[in-house]
Protein 1
Amino acid sequence: MIGIRSAAVLVAVAALLVPAGATGHTPGLVFSGVGTATADGIIQPGEWQAAGTLGFQAALPGGGSVPGELLVMNDGSNL
């Protein structure tokens, strides 16, 4: 399980690792995910199951890459 602070740090690090020359999204790509996660610092099994996902390779400083995944979902009042 991952804490909310750890998750925020991972997101910030992932954002820094995306190459500066990254292109925009694929034309026609639309994320679709409906649900509400509980922001309690614990990712429960299935909590993000309905999220839209995008897998990517995050560049590492000095070369190489690691797999990353962006999860997106919203409900009537939360993104």
Protein 2
Amino acid sequence: MPNLTPHFTLEELTRSDVALRKGIPNAPNAAQIANLERLAETLLEPLRWALGVPLKVNSGYRCPDLNAAVGGATNSAHMDGRAADLVPVDMPLLEAFKEIVRSGLPFDQLIIECGAWLHVAVAREGEQPRQEALTASGGPGHWKYERWVG
């Protein structure tokens, strides 16, 4: 599959172990692919350079069936191809989170979820990014979000 940017491919932003196990086809349409490309160009690639480490993508695009299977929010930006869950390689998660908040990059949402991964999202096309930094605890269906005041 083609690279969306020098370090991110469409394959890694659509791959899902849950989808493979459950036989859920997770194929984005042209608009969702365009959003994934914008996500990679606007946030993922610049974040990789800003943090100075590779980023392991755990989840990118999710079709509605896959989103439901993983307990995602019903309005999840993942379903539009506007979000990715990732882990910076060899960098403490909280350090990466704080650096992203300070970076000035145009994220719509940045969430440190359960101290295990970062959720990053771009705004919808034509909308201003909210620059919303949150922490999340709990689990699927029971997430508790708090605004970061760090």
Protein 3
Amino acid sequence: MEVHARYTLIGLFALAVIGAVFMFVYWIEAGGGLTDRTTYRIRFADPVAGLSKGSAVLFNGVRIGEVTHLALDDKRPSDVEVEVAVDRSAPVRSDTNVGVEFQGLAGAPTVALAGGSPNLPLLADAAREKRVLTAEKNSGQTMTQAARSVLRNIDTVVTQNAEPLRNAIASIDKFTAALARNSDKVDGIIAGLDRLTGGGSKPVARIYELAPATKFAPIAAFPSGVMQIPEPSALARLESDRLQLGGMATKSGELAQWPDLLTRVVQSALLRSFENAGYKRVLGRAPEAAKVDYQLLVDIRRFELLSQAPSKAAVELGARIMK
């Protein structure tokens, strides 16, 4: 009997030691252990899903304590009072922001503290009944609850504006139908805007040229000496590379123009005409060492294409020979 009694005492002693170790570890982790801790009460005005005794308390992401107690308020059923034990050195002040965050893959809830004015005194120095913090509204909502709240708000807005939405959809349907009926006109308007802003394909330039004279009356003799034909003079509106038929843009966006300024085109045509007639001693621009005996000075007074026959033109030239 004495042997059995001795084993029983040894077993009870071992259980007591193990229990003491567990209690000591729990006291170290949950109650603060040997560190100097301060308790605060936090009021939540909405549910704190998943928060429980032992949940971590973070300040700016740094763990400073744990939740030690949770309770409901009989006078305010929607509120939850949470008591936390944190390091006394934590900079908790009366305006510190309080909320609930969810961390990790499992989404473990934690009490999150942040901010606070450095000018205010530390709340740890206040009396126990004054160490109270108020959490932000809806700070205890989970992501699922927040999403449901947003969806409920959207549903409310849609329900309240069902008739205007139906009218708007009907108006859009009418507008798209009108666009479909007038698609060719819309394409023309868009093409015009594209050209106005410098976009789209550039108009194709159609180059016109003056043909020199090839048929002449019999010429008995040519004057001796060298003749120069300088670039003719003309009015400012004729000093252009555009054809003078209202400026003229032909069909299909084709642009009609000369290969150079009209004055140079006329000069070139005169030079080639004299060469075709057999007078080879004619120059457009005399070299510095060349001796010029005559100058044919030409004045373009009128040069307009005929609208009824664009291949023909009404031309008026003035010419005089200078020695």
